[in-house]
Protein 1
Amino acid sequence: MSPFPHSQALFEVAQTVIPGGVTSSIRAGARPHPLYFERGEGPYLWDVDGNRFVDYALGYGPLILGHAPAVVRDAVSAQLERDLTYGSQHRLEPELAGLLVEIVPGAEQAIFATTGSEAVAAALRVARAVTGHDLVIKFEGHYHGWLDGVFASTGFDPQRSGPVDRPIAVPATIGMPESSLADVAVAQWNDLGSVEAILAAHASGVAAILCEPVAVNGGVIAPVPGFLEALRRVANERGAMLIFDEVITGFRLALGGAQERLGVTADLAIFAKAIAGGIALSAVTGSRGVMAPIADGRLVHNGTFNGNPIAMASGVASLRHLIDGRDRIYPELDRLGARLAAALTAASPRLTVRQVGPIVHTAVDEPDDVRTIRDRVGDPDAHARFIEALLGRGIHATPRGLWYLSTAHRDEDIDTTAAAAAEAARETLG
Ligand SMILES: Cc1ncc(COP(=O)(O)O)c(C=O)c1O
C-alpha cells in the first residue's frame, strides 16, 4: 500500500485513459508512483492526500517566484477580464519584447512561442537561414526539448554513445525518423577538441553550436573556465551561430541569465520556464541582423498562441517583479542555493552535490570532479531511494536530483529540508 493512497488511486485510473498515466514522459519516473497535487502557495505544494511538501521541483523550473505568486495571478486575472486571446497584436507584445531587450545581453529583438521545444526549433531555423548551413553541433547530456532533430544523446549509453571524444548522435526516443539526426553532430561538453573535430570534418560550414550554458539537464555540470569563451571564438571563426539554450538558466542564474552571469554573449538565446512565472511562454532573442530573415518575411515563424495575452501578461508581471527586485532577489537566490547545497552535503558523505546559484543537483557516490556526463558514475538507484524517502518527509525534489530555489523559499524551509535530508540519508544511504 502506498503512503499516498489517493494519488495511487488516481494514478491507476489515469493509466486506463492516458498512456502511462502521465502527460510528460519524464514524470513517470517518480517513486513510489507519480503524485497528484491540488494546490500550491509560495514554496509549498499540497497533494490529494493532504500532505504538504516544501517544493524544489517548482513545476520543473517555471515557478521562480514560487507557487501562485500574487503579481502573476493579478496580471493574469486583469487580462482574463479583457479577453483570453486575440490571435492579433496587442500592447503587451512590444512591452515584453522591450523588457527582454533591456535585460538580456545581445538582445535587440525577440520572438515568442509557447514552449521551450518550439523556441529551440525556431532558433535553429533562424541559424540555418542566416548561415545557409544545416549542421547543428549539440553536446552529449544536454537537453533541448523533445522535437525531432535535437532529441539525441541526452544521456550516456555505453553500448551506443561512441568514444568519449567522438560521441555519436543517439536518438532519445523511438519514433523519430533516422533522417532527423542527419544534420546533428554531438560533441563532448567541456572538450573543445571534440567541437573542433566536427568543425574540421564539415569544412563547408556549420549552422550552429547549441548548448545549455550550464549543463543543467545532464546534472548541473558547469562549463570549465574558458570553455564558453572558446565556443564563442570557434563559432566566430567558422561563421556559425552560437546558441545558448537558457530555458532553465534564463532569469535564474542572473536577471540576464547565464550570458550575464558567465560573461559570454551568444548570437541567439532561448528562454521559457521562468520567463512567465508559471504560464507557458517561450522566446528567442538575438540581434536585429540575425532576426532579419523574419523581419523581411522570408523566414516563417507562425503560432496560433504566439504572443497570447495571458502568457504575455504573466511574462511582463514576472519580469517587472524580477527587474524591480534584482539587487535583492539574485544575491538572495544564490545565498539560499548555497545554504541548500551545504545542508544536502552535510546530510551524507555519499551525496554528491553540485550547485550553480539557485540550481542544486544531488546524486549518490559520484566523483567530485565531473566535467562530462560520462564522469557521472554513481548509484542512481540509491539516489532514487533517497528522493523517495524525502517525499515521505514532506520534501519534493525532482526524481533526477534537480532542486530549484524560488524567491518564496525561506531559511526555515532549508532548515526543515536539512533535518529531513539527514534522516532520509540515514535511512537509505547508511
Ligand atoms: C534546457 C531546456 N531546453 C528546452 C526544454 C524544452 O522546453 P519545453 O519542455 O517547454 O518544451 C527544456 C525542458 O526541460 C530544457 O530544460
Note: Residues 326-347 form the longest helix (22 residues).
Protein 2
Amino acid sequence: MNKTVLIFWPKGGNVENAANMIAKEFGEIDIVSVDKVTEDTLVQYNKFIVGTSSLGAETWEGTKNKSPWNAFITILGKHDFSNKKVALFGLGDQVLWPSNFVDGLGTIYAAFVNVKAQMVGKWSTEGYDFTDSKAAEGNSFVGLALDEDQQAELSEERIQAWVKQIKEEF
Ligand SMILES: Cc1cc2nc3c(=O)[nH]c(=O)nc-3n(C[C@H](O)[C@H](O)[C@H](O)COP(=O)(O)O)c2cc1C
C-alpha cells in the first residue's frame, strides 16, 4: 500500500483552501479533516501531508481540550512512524504575529518527530519577513509556510513548487 493522505484543520478557512489546492496539485490523494482521523487512518497510509494554522501560544494552550489536534497528537503518540514519510504545511500571518510566525507548524512537527516519522518538505525562509518561529530551523521552515493574510499572491507558486519537491522526497 503506497497511498497518501492529507490531514488538515481547521475547516472552512485558509487551511482548508490550501489543503484543497495541495490535494489538486498532488493528484492521487485522500483528504480528511483531523477530527475524522482514526487509528486506522494512521495505520493504513504510509505517506502523510498534514496542515494547520497558527493561533498563538496562548490560544493553542487555551483551546487545549477543544482543539482536535490535541486528540490527534494523543492517538499519534501510540504509533511508530519510522517507516512513514510526513510533509507539513502551516498557515500564519508574518505581519501581525512576527515572533510566532507559523508556530502551529512547529507544534505539529514536534509531534511527528516524537513518533520518529521521516520528515520531508522543508522550505526556505527566504521571502518571508518575521523575527521568530517555532517552525524555523536555521534558514528553513520544517514544512511549507503559507501566509494568506500578507502574501496570498505567492501561495499558488509556493504550493506548486513544494508539491513537486515532496513528490520527489516521498
Ligand atoms: C486569534 C488568532 C491568533 C493567531 N495567531 C497566530 C500566530 O501566533 N502566528 C501566526 O503566524 N499566525 C497567527 N494567526 C493567523 C492565522 O494563522 C492565519 O490567519 C491563518 O491563515 C488562519 O487559517 P484559517 O483561515 O484556516 O483559520 C492568528 C489568527 C488568529 C485569528
Note: Helices lie at 14-26, 39-44, 57-62, 68-76, 103-114, 152-169.
Protein 3
Amino acid sequence: MENNIVTIEKMTYGIDSLAHLDGKVVFVPYGVPGDKVKIEVTEDKPDYIRAKIVEIIEPSKHRRKSPCPNFPQCGGCHWQEMHPETQRNEKENVLNFIIKGLNPSHAYPMEPLPMRGYRNKMELKVAFPEDGSVILGNYSYNSHDVVPLKGCIVQCYENMLLYEKLLEFANKPENRETMENIHTITVRTLGEQQHCTFALKVPTSNEEALAPFKKFFDENESLSRLEVYAEVGNLLTQMRDKKPFFFMNRNWRVSPNSFFQNNIEGAEAILHTLISIYSAYQHKGKFLDLYCGCGTQTFLLESMFEEVYAVECNVSSFQDALAHQKTRTSSKINFICKKAEAIFNTPITKGVIAALHLNPPRTGISQRVTRGLSGIKPKIITYLSCNPMTFRRDAKALKQMGYKLDRVYSFDLFPGTYHMETLGVFLRS
Ligand SMILES: C[S@@+](CC[C@H](N)C(=O)[O-])C[C@H]1O[C@@H](n2cnc3c(N)ncnc32)[C@H](O)[C@@H]1O
C-alpha cells in the first residue's frame, strides 16, 4: 500500500498511538505524540485505518531511546520510547477520555511511581531455538515468539538475579528433558520471600524427574519456596525458613497462587489512599470487601467498621487471609471463600451496609454482581480497577443505581506499559 505522512496526536488505551489521515482516524503502534512519521497502511476500514511506522521523519520531543534493550520485541512494555512524564500525562488523558461521560466531580492527577525495578512477579515462557539453546522470556506482542528478558528494566533486581540462575539451569545439557516438559516458570519476590513455581506440561511424580528441581532449590539460597505442579496438582514443594513479607507494618503470608499487586510501592500508595478516603466518614453498619485477595485492604480498613465481610473465591488467597488473621490479636473480619455472585440475598447482605469495596479482576464485575448490588444500598462504594474500560461500564451501572462518581484517583502502577490502576469513589445521591 501507499506510504503517507502523519503527525501523531495522542495515545490510546493500548499499544496504538492516534493520528488522522484524510479525515480518518489512524491507529499506529509505537508512535509518540508529536512524532512526524511516514506510515504504511496495513488495514483500511470504512471508519478507521491501521498502519505501521516505516520512518520517523521528525521525532517528537517526548520521544526517547528505550532504556530497555528488549523493546519493542518483548511484549511486556509498550510505551518505553516515551519520556516518563509523557507516559503519565498520556495515561491521564486516556483515562479522562474514557471516564468523561461519568462526570466525576474530581479526577486527581495520576500518582507517579518508580519507573524501574517495580515488578515483583515474573512469568517466563520457554522456547527452544534451532541453535540448541533454551530461551526464557515474555511472548512478543500478539505472538507466541519468546523474547529473552535479559536486561529487563521493570523486573525487580532479585527476580533478575534468579532469572540468570534459571537461564543457567535451563541451558545445562543434563536439564534438557526437564526443560522440554516446562510450560511456564513463575517467580515472585516479596521481601525475603522468593517463590519459584514450575508448571509442567505432563505430570510426573518420578523421583528422577523431580531431582533437578530439588537441586535448583538447594543451590539457590535466595529461594524461600519452590513448587512444581501440573494440572493434576502439586508434585513437589521445597521450603526454606525466611523472614515473612513485611508490608504496611505487618507480616503477611502470600502463597504462590495467591493474589498480590505486582508493584509493592503501588499497593502501598493505593492502601494509603483508601485509608484516607474511609477515615473521612463516620461509618454505621457493615463493610463489605468483594474480591478481597489475601485481605490486605480489608485488614487495614476493618477498624473503622462495626462488622466486616470479605469475599474471595481463590482458596489460596482465602487461606492466606485466615493465616494473617490468626496473627492479629483482634480482627473481626468474616472471610468467605465464595464467588462474589453467591453472597447476595444471604445474611451477609442483610442489615445496614455502610460501605462496599470492589476490586475485581480485569473483566470487572459480572451482571449477577451488578444485579445483586442494586439490592443493597451502601452510602459509599470504592471501586479499584486495573481496566478503565470495564471500570466505565460498571460505573455506569452504579450511576443508574443512584450513585454519583465523586472522585477518581489513578496510580501509575505499570510504567513503560499502557496499564494503570483507577480508584473511583461513589456516593449515594
Ligand atoms: C485484582 S485482585 C484484588 C485482590 C485484593 N483486593 C488485593 O488488592 O490484594 C481480584 C481478586 O478477585 C478474585 N476473584 C476473581 N473473580 C472472583 C469472583 N467472582 N468472586 C470472588 N473473588 C473473585 C481473584 O481471585 C483475585 O484475588
Note: Residues 259-261, 291-294, 296-297, 311-314, 317, 339-341, 359-361 surround S-adenosylmethionine (CB under 6 Å).
